[in-house]
Amino acid sequence: MDIVLCIRNRLYREGLSRLLSDRPEFNRVSACCRLAELPAFVIAETPQAILIDVGPDRRGDGPSQIRTAFRSAQGRPLIVLGVASGDAEVLASVEAGAAACVSADDSIASLVGVIQSASRGELVCPPRISRMIQTRLMDLSESQAGPERLSRLSQREQQVLSLLQDRMSNKQIARNLGLEVSTIKNHVHNIIVKLAVSSRAEAAAVARRAT
Hints:
The chain has helices at about 10-20, 40-45, 60-75, 85-95, 110-120, 125-150, 155-165, 170-175, 180-195, 200-210, and strands at about 1-5, 30, 50-55, 80, 100. By secondary structure, it is of the alpha/beta class. The chain has 2 domains: about 1-130, Rossmann fold (3-Layer(aba) Sandwich), CATH 3.40.50; about 135-210, Arc Repressor Mutant, subunit A (Orthogonal Bundle). It starts with a strand and ends with a helix.
Protein backbone atom coordinates (compact mmCIF):
# COMPACT_ATOMS: atom_id res chain seq x y z
CA MET A 1 0.00 0.00 0.00
CA ASP A 2 1.24 3.51 -0.87
CA ILE A 3 0.43 6.38 1.50
CA VAL A 4 1.12 10.10 1.76
CA LEU A 5 1.78 11.99 5.00
CA CYS A 6 1.11 15.71 5.35
CA ILE A 7 2.72 16.82 8.60
CA ARG A 8 4.10 20.29 9.33
CA ASN A 9 6.48 19.34 12.15
CA ARG A 10 9.68 18.00 10.56
CA LEU A 11 10.73 15.68 13.39
CA TYR A 12 7.27 14.18 13.60
CA ARG A 13 7.01 13.88 9.81
CA GLU A 14 10.39 12.21 9.34
CA GLY A 15 10.00 9.97 12.38
CA LEU A 16 6.56 8.69 11.42
CA SER A 17 7.61 8.28 7.81
CA ARG A 18 10.55 6.11 8.86
CA LEU A 19 8.45 3.99 11.22
CA LEU A 20 5.77 3.34 8.60
CA SER A 21 8.34 2.70 5.86
CA ASP A 22 9.73 -0.12 7.99
CA ARG A 23 6.33 -1.82 8.12
CA PRO A 24 5.71 -4.60 5.58
CA GLU A 25 2.17 -3.30 4.97
CA PHE A 26 3.46 -0.28 3.01
CA ASN A 27 5.27 -0.15 -0.31
CA ARG A 28 5.92 3.57 -0.37
CA VAL A 29 5.53 6.36 2.17
CA SER A 30 5.75 9.89 0.78
CA ALA A 31 5.61 13.05 2.86
CA CYS A 32 4.94 16.75 2.48
CA CYS A 33 4.78 19.51 5.07
CA ARG A 34 2.00 21.80 3.85
CA LEU A 35 -1.59 21.28 2.73
CA ALA A 36 -0.87 23.40 -0.34
CA GLU A 37 1.54 20.69 -1.52
CA LEU A 38 -0.91 17.83 -1.00
CA PRO A 39 -2.76 17.96 -4.37
CA ALA A 40 0.49 17.56 -6.31
CA PHE A 41 1.58 14.66 -4.09
CA VAL A 42 -1.77 12.91 -4.55
CA ILE A 43 -1.49 13.18 -8.33
CA ALA A 44 2.16 12.09 -8.44
CA GLU A 45 2.05 9.29 -5.85
CA THR A 46 -1.54 7.97 -6.31
CA PRO A 47 -1.70 6.78 -2.68
CA GLN A 48 -4.30 4.45 -1.23
CA ALA A 49 -4.60 6.61 1.90
CA ILE A 50 -3.58 10.06 3.14
CA LEU A 51 -2.58 11.04 6.67
CA ILE A 52 -2.65 14.63 7.90
CA ASP A 53 -1.76 16.09 11.29
CA VAL A 54 -4.02 18.54 13.11
CA GLY A 55 -2.32 18.28 16.50
CA PRO A 56 -1.92 21.01 19.13
CA ASP A 57 0.72 22.87 17.12
CA ARG A 58 -1.48 23.18 14.04
CA ARG A 59 -1.97 26.56 12.42
CA GLY A 60 -5.59 27.39 11.82
CA ASP A 61 -8.85 25.57 12.35
CA GLY A 62 -8.69 21.75 12.45
CA PRO A 63 -11.99 20.97 10.64
CA SER A 64 -11.17 23.60 8.00
CA GLN A 65 -7.83 21.91 7.34
CA ILE A 66 -9.53 18.54 7.13
CA ARG A 67 -12.04 19.84 4.57
CA THR A 68 -9.17 21.24 2.49
CA ALA A 69 -7.30 17.93 2.66
CA PHE A 70 -10.49 16.00 1.86
CA ARG A 71 -10.90 17.92 -1.39
CA SER A 72 -7.25 17.26 -2.26
CA ALA A 73 -7.64 13.55 -1.50
CA GLN A 74 -9.92 13.05 -4.52
CA GLY A 75 -11.95 10.29 -2.88
CA ARG A 76 -9.09 8.58 -1.07
CA PRO A 77 -9.53 7.91 2.67
CA LEU A 78 -8.22 10.64 4.94
CA ILE A 79 -6.76 9.63 8.32
CA VAL A 80 -6.41 12.53 10.76
CA LEU A 81 -3.64 12.47 13.35
CA GLY A 82 -3.53 14.34 16.62
CA VAL A 83 -7.28 14.81 17.14
CA ALA A 84 -8.34 15.23 20.76
CA SER A 85 -10.19 12.15 21.99
CA GLY A 86 -13.35 14.05 22.97
CA ASP A 87 -16.59 13.19 21.16
CA ALA A 88 -17.07 16.74 19.84
CA GLU A 89 -13.61 16.86 18.27
CA VAL A 90 -13.89 13.42 16.66
CA LEU A 91 -17.40 14.14 15.34
CA ALA A 92 -16.30 17.49 13.89
CA SER A 93 -13.39 15.76 12.15
CA VAL A 94 -15.62 13.05 10.65
CA GLU A 95 -18.14 15.64 9.48
CA ALA A 96 -15.27 17.53 7.80
CA GLY A 97 -14.25 14.43 5.83
CA ALA A 98 -12.05 12.24 8.03
CA ALA A 99 -12.38 8.49 7.48
CA ALA A 100 -10.59 7.89 10.78
CA CYS A 101 -9.07 9.81 13.68
CA VAL A 102 -5.95 8.79 15.59
CA SER A 103 -4.90 10.39 18.86
CA ALA A 104 -1.37 10.99 20.07
CA ASP A 105 -1.77 8.11 22.54
CA ASP A 106 -2.39 5.44 19.86
CA SER A 107 0.39 3.01 18.93
CA ILE A 108 1.97 2.48 15.52
CA ALA A 109 0.30 -0.94 15.32
CA SER A 110 -3.06 0.69 15.99
CA LEU A 111 -2.36 3.34 13.36
CA VAL A 112 -1.49 0.69 10.78
CA GLY A 113 -4.75 -1.12 11.51
CA VAL A 114 -6.70 2.11 11.12
CA ILE A 115 -5.03 2.86 7.78
CA GLN A 116 -5.84 -0.63 6.50
CA SER A 117 -9.47 -0.37 7.59
CA ALA A 118 -9.88 3.09 6.08
CA SER A 119 -8.32 1.95 2.80
CA ARG A 120 -11.04 -0.72 2.59
CA GLY A 121 -13.65 2.01 2.67
CA GLU A 122 -14.56 1.66 6.34
CA LEU A 123 -15.36 4.58 8.62
CA VAL A 124 -13.18 4.01 11.68
CA CYS A 125 -14.65 5.62 14.79
CA PRO A 126 -15.94 4.60 18.23
CA PRO A 127 -19.51 3.20 18.34
CA ARG A 128 -20.74 6.24 20.24
CA ILE A 129 -19.56 8.49 17.37
CA SER A 130 -21.35 6.25 14.86
CA ARG A 131 -24.51 6.71 16.89
CA MET A 132 -24.02 10.50 16.96
CA ILE A 133 -23.57 10.51 13.18
CA GLN A 134 -26.75 8.46 12.80
CA THR A 135 -28.62 10.96 14.97
CA ARG A 136 -27.30 13.85 12.88
CA LEU A 137 -28.43 12.11 9.68
CA MET A 138 -31.87 11.45 11.15
CA ASP A 139 -32.20 15.12 12.15
CA LEU A 140 -31.09 16.20 8.68
CA SER A 141 -33.58 13.84 7.06
CA GLU A 142 -36.36 15.19 9.27
CA SER A 143 -35.47 18.80 8.48
CA GLN A 144 -35.50 18.09 4.74
CA ALA A 145 -38.68 16.01 4.83
CA GLY A 146 -40.57 18.47 7.05
CA PRO A 147 -41.34 21.13 4.39
CA GLU A 148 -42.48 18.46 1.91
CA ARG A 149 -44.87 16.95 4.44
CA LEU A 150 -46.18 20.35 5.49
CA SER A 151 -47.04 21.13 1.87
CA ARG A 152 -49.66 18.34 2.06
CA LEU A 153 -51.73 20.38 4.52
CA SER A 154 -54.59 22.63 3.50
CA GLN A 155 -54.49 26.31 4.41
CA ARG A 156 -56.89 25.71 7.32
CA GLU A 157 -54.83 22.75 8.57
CA GLN A 158 -51.73 24.92 8.49
CA GLN A 159 -53.55 27.49 10.63
CA VAL A 160 -54.50 24.80 13.12
CA LEU A 161 -50.94 23.43 13.17
CA SER A 162 -49.60 26.92 13.87
CA LEU A 163 -51.83 27.09 16.95
CA LEU A 164 -50.81 23.56 17.98
CA GLN A 165 -47.26 24.88 18.19
CA ASP A 166 -48.53 27.29 20.83
CA ARG A 167 -49.85 24.27 22.80
CA MET A 168 -53.46 25.36 22.46
CA SER A 169 -56.25 22.91 23.24
CA ASN A 170 -58.92 22.06 20.67
CA LYS A 171 -61.35 24.35 22.48
CA GLN A 172 -58.88 27.25 22.41
CA ILE A 173 -58.13 26.71 18.72
CA ALA A 174 -61.86 26.57 17.94
CA ARG A 175 -62.43 29.84 19.78
CA ASN A 176 -59.44 31.45 18.03
CA LEU A 177 -60.60 30.44 14.53
CA GLY A 178 -64.33 30.75 15.15
CA LEU A 179 -65.00 27.07 14.42
CA GLU A 180 -66.69 24.16 16.17
CA VAL A 181 -64.54 21.95 18.43
CA SER A 182 -65.57 18.89 16.39
CA THR A 183 -64.24 20.59 13.26
CA ILE A 184 -60.91 21.25 14.96
CA LYS A 185 -60.73 17.61 16.05
CA ASN A 186 -61.11 16.57 12.42
CA HIS A 187 -58.41 18.99 11.33
CA VAL A 188 -56.02 17.73 14.02
CA HIS A 189 -56.68 14.13 12.95
CA ASN A 190 -55.96 15.00 9.31
CA ILE A 191 -52.76 16.81 10.28
CA ILE A 192 -51.50 13.79 12.22
CA VAL A 193 -52.26 11.45 9.30
CA LYS A 194 -50.73 13.71 6.62
CA LEU A 195 -47.55 14.33 8.62
CA ALA A 196 -47.23 10.61 9.47
CA VAL A 197 -46.85 11.26 13.20
CA SER A 198 -48.56 9.75 16.22
CA SER A 199 -49.62 12.82 18.21
CA ARG A 200 -50.35 16.52 18.04
CA ALA A 201 -47.10 17.17 19.93
CA GLU A 202 -45.10 15.37 17.23
CA ALA A 203 -46.94 17.34 14.56
CA ALA A 204 -45.97 20.59 16.26
CA ALA A 205 -42.37 19.37 16.49
CA VAL A 206 -42.27 18.69 12.73
CA ALA A 207 -43.50 22.24 12.09
CA ARG A 208 -40.90 23.75 14.44
CA ARG A 209 -38.04 21.84 12.81
CA ALA A 210 -39.12 22.99 9.37
CA THR A 211 -39.01 26.69 10.28
